[in-house]
Amino acid sequence: MLSKPEVQLMARMQLAKDLACSPRDFTRHSNTVTPFQVQEGRRPFQQREFLYAACFGRGTVFSADPAIHEAVQASSVRRKGQEWFEHGAMRELDRILEPHGWAMGNVYLVYLPEFLLRRADSGLSPVRWFEGDAVQQLYANPSFPNALTYCPDSPRPDVLAVAGCDENGKITGLAGASEDSREFWQIGIDVLPENRREGLGTYLVNLLTAEIIRRDAIPYYATLAGNIASRSIARKCGYYPAWVEMHAVPAGKESESF
How far is it, in rounded angstroms, from Cα 250 to Cα 208? Predict the structure, then answer.
């Protein structure tokens, strides 16, 4: 089993592919601005990133389109790394982006597992597993948008899911994994409103986490800063906050999630 420092290093290596930088850039106290490049193995949230930023707690690394690279470079020295994820700093980035028809989207807190997972209580809920093409059977049910991409041709496909069911076989909660890169699979969770606060979300995330690890991939978990319920599930399942990231989106789509 990989140690926590090893997983953190692998995460920095993955983000280095995403932002076309060096893994060491995330450990510097100064900020780094790189030109956007499509590198093999990057997580394809968008075909082209106009502005993408990530921070592991020290300096922020920005990947910027050539049209705004110089402006972002000039602004980057004005604030410390983590300060770029505050509202005022994002407004400053919006002023750079606005003439080009872009705006900053949501800020995501991203979690990694401690690999000291709590055991899920067996028998909490009957479960069903879905893998590969079978996951797409779930797309007929629109109730789980945080667990599934609902996109058969997604560059980050849904590859594995575990569903909690009631006594009649109805799916009441779903944890899904998208293969964002060969090594990093992102977990999403949705529980029907009438079945929340019963421990089902934590149970399903624990099961899926353990199965992803068994397959030699690294599970990770991203949530909006204000989603307290989702952050609580991450904590209960042994995940800890590892980095923060944000992407520019076309103007008018600031509230959309990846």
Answer: 33
